[in-house]
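Q: Hi! First time doing this. I have a protein sequence and I read that you can turn it into a structure. Is that right? Here it is:
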Amino acid sequence: MLREQFAGEIDTLEILEQMKRNYPIDANRVVEMGFSMGGAAACTWRCITPTSGGAASPGAGFAETREYQKMDKSDEWRALPAYRKSLFHLYDCPDWCWNLQMVPLIAYAGEIDPQQQSRGRDAEGDGGAGAQIGADLRAEGRAQV
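A: Yes, that's right. Below is the predicted 3D structure, encoded as structure tokens:
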């Protein structure tokens, strides 16, 4: 494993292993899905473990805590000690998102949903930090899909 696992990840792995023991499951056809916090988890899981199964479908989840929590606007980020900043690398997607090149991904969020990072960072074209993940499914973006 690339890094330490969080409690929810261990639970997910244990459930999947139990399902594989009891049912004929093809690991290449497993799709991680989630909405809101679950969307963030599905996106993060596939960024960090791109070869662990089939596809991912995160919905309305955040991908970068610093941006989602607006830490720069409140000066909270600047006040954090370096060791705490480094911990965001364990969970946030931007450092890992290049792994998504190997993963079939259908990400979604409402057009005005404030929590739509897993749908596509930089959906507004602001050139934000990190790579875009997901697809723009608004009318002008549908032709790209």
